[in-house]
Amino acid sequence: MMSTSSVSVCSQIDVFAIGEYETKLVKPADTVTPKPLLIFTPLEAGEYPVLILLHGYLLNNSFYSQLSHQIASHGFVLVVPQLYSVAGPDATKEVAYVAEITNWLPEGLQQLLPSQVNANLTKLGLAGHSRGGKVAFALALNRVKTDLKLKFSLLIGIDPVDGMDKGIQTPPKVLTYIPHSFNIGMPVMVIGTGLGEVRKNTLFPACAPKGVNHEDFYNECCKPACYFVAKDYGHLDMLDDETKGIRGKATHCLCKNGKSREPMRRFVGGVVVAFLKAYLGGNFSYLMGIKDNENTPVVLQQVDFLV
Fold first, then answer.
1. Beta partners for 25?
2. Which helix (H) or strand (E) holds 51?
């Protein structure tokens, strides 16, 4: 049993806007997948690369629906798991869960997609937001021993966080504080937020503190890698405009936010699409346009490329 809902899109070439493909959300029954999943897929017949997107700490995978539809509408299949409901500081099990989900893809994903849609698992990306970014890097760096059967083609950290502060990393530790020490063997993109390291108020710590945030992750990346920091936006500004429930309401009060989520979400979606088109499709024009700060929906505080 599965339930589906669909969304219509307009044909546009702007990576920061909805793309040319109509997309569908597929929600499989939990009994047929290793973890609960949301799958965002184009409806037009074709073969599409696949991106696994990991949620942030104590967040719901459904909070990334608008972002996921945007990326899928440019010709990609997104697999967005719910790794846990409640979790402590140790993310080791989450790394193992992602490996399990990845190993399930060859036999499990295709049967859940529309009959005319084919998943190309030779072009497989891994992305994660916040703690999900840490988990993605930990898996790619083999910080937790797993029996991973598929090879990832690229890695994306969306405002990744490795702990509470420098010296207070949570397991498994990812950062080594040795420049260019990440021997990942694939292209990497790190997206950061200018307000992530700013405290919302005196009651709560910063959501992406200096010493364990995007800057530190990028400093340890090797070539090829790229880095974008959105100046006036916060750690959760790439989530849906409306996030329901207690957790959803908390996303508006725990972290320092920009004026609106929509520009940051469009930026994250667009730069992810540009990165995927570059390293999975060989078209670098979109990524180079963002490097030159062409028509981006946010002001970029920092841009850097390791080539």
1. 5, 40
2. strand 46-54
Which helix (H) or strand (E) segment is 80 a member of? Answer: strand 77-81
In order of 116, 164, 222, 302, the CA distances from 92 in angstroms are 37, 16, 24, 31
- Number of domains the chain is built from: 1
CATH number for the domain harbouring residue 126: 3.40.50.1820
SS3 string, 237-302, reads: CCCCCCCCHHHHHHCCCCCCCCCCHHHHHHHHHHHHHHHHHHHHHCCCHHHHHHHCCCCCCCCEEE
Question: Which active-site residues does the annotation give?
Answer: 130, 159, 235
Give the alpha-carbon dihedral of 196, 220, 150, 87, to 10 degrees.
-40
pLDDT digits (tens, 9 = 90+) for 17-40: 999 999 999 999 999 999 999 999
pLDDT per residue over 177-188, tens digit each? 999 999 999 999
Helices (H), the chain: 65-72, 92-108, 131-140, 214-219, 245-250, 261-281, 285-291
The answer, yes or no, to whether the previous bond of 172 is cis (omega within 30 of 0) is yes
Distance CA 236, CA 300 (A): 17
Query: What per-residue confidence (pLDDT) applies to 203?
Result: 81
Note whether 28 and 299 are within 8 A (CB).
no
For residues 226 and 304, the answer to whether their CB atoms sit within 8 Å is: yes
Structural domain of residue 150, as residue ranges? Answer: 2-306
Two tokens, residue 269: 């979606």
Compute and round to an integer the Cα radius of gyration of the chain: 18
Handedness of CA 107, 112, 117, 123 (dihedral sign): negative
Residue appearing with tokens 């207070």: 168
In angstroms, the CA 275 to CA 73 distance is: 15
Count Cβ atoms within 10 A of the Cβ of residue 90 and give its class: 0-12 exposed, 13-18 middle, 19 or more buried.
exposed
